[in-house]
Design goal:
By secondary structure, this protein is of the alpha/beta class. The chain has nine helices and seven strands, in the order αααβαβαββαβααββα. It binds S-adenosylmethionine.
């Protein structure tokens, strides 16, 4: 059996931005980089244009995108003050990135070429998730992208590992997960065309990435997924690992 290779460590120029943080926060920055497929996500982001990372935490992905794409204008938003202040401290005079202390419910209406959410949506209530995604349909520019990294349900052992890790990290609080199939139908009903990329390589979690393209001109027929109980009842709907 081949032992899977772990994700690479955080790039030095990115980690350097966090040098003023307390030891445990820097430890969390490094750990987070190892536990989230940020490079897979970054690989889908346009080289230039306006990008927003909603629920950006301390802003590692937003910073990475700004560092590696001078033509990008990146905004990170988060409602947790300590995290967003830590992110703001990393800006250090750069002009293609900013961080705003904001709740996703108060997102202004401006247009973005790419909207990103990593390990974020399940922190919202089911109703708030739907409302935000409908809003995203409005703020993604025609032909633009909505990238959602969240938890899939394959392989099974990673799904169970994620349940345990998540409960521990969230002090036992339950998060509002949905089955991949439920996300897919809702995103399609909003008029996005969709590719689902497995993003669990090198990590013990069943991460997947929804790459949603806003198809200009298509009529959006948003419908409700049916709330928490309904979506939780949906059985695993992803039988293939990559769905176009
Ligand atoms: C698991 S962390 C993920 C952080 C970052 N996206 C990452 O991948 O490292 C979830 C983040 O979402 C933020 N968050 C939760 N609800 C939010 C809301 N309604 N508006 C903005 N941020 C929110 C939390 O403060 C937290 O920083």
């Amino acid at each position: 059996m081949r032992i899977p290779r772990p994700l690479p460590p955080i790039p030095k120029d990115l980690y350097r931005l966090y040098s003023d943080l307390a030891f445990w926060q820097r430890w969390h920055v490094r750990l987070r980089w190892r536990l989230c497929p940020f490079l897979v996500i970054a690989g889908q982001v346009p080289r230039s244009g306006r990008i927003v990372d909603i629920g950006c935490g301390r802003g590692m992905l937003a910073n990475y995108l700004a560092l590696t794409g001078p033509g990008r204008r990146v905004v990170g938003i988060d409602k947790q003050e300590t995290r967003i202040r830590a992110a703001q401290a990393t800006v250090r005079g750069r002009t293609n990135i900013e961080f705003r202390y904001r709740d996703s419910r108060d997102l202004e209406v401006s247009e973005f070429d790419c909207v990103i959410m990593t390990d974020f949506l399940h922190h919202l209530s089911y109703g708030e998730q739907e409302e935000l995604l409908r809003h995203c349909r409005e703020i993604v520019a025609p032909g633009g992208l909505l990238l959602i990294e969240d938890v899939g349900d394959r392989p099974r052992w990673k799904w169970y590992a994620h349940l345990v890790i998540d409960r521990v990290l969230n002090f036992g609080r339950r998060q509002n997960f949905r089955r991949p199939g439920a996300w897919k139908s809702f995103l399609r009903s909003l008029g996005f065309s969709l590719t689902v990329i497995p993003a669990d390589r090198g990590i013990p979690l069943p991460d997947i990435l929804f790459v949603c393209v806003k198809s200009p001109g298509r009529e959006a027929r948003a419908r409700s997924i049916g709330g928490r109980a309904g979506s939780e009842r949906n059985g695993p709907e992803v039988s293939r690992r990559k769905i176009n």
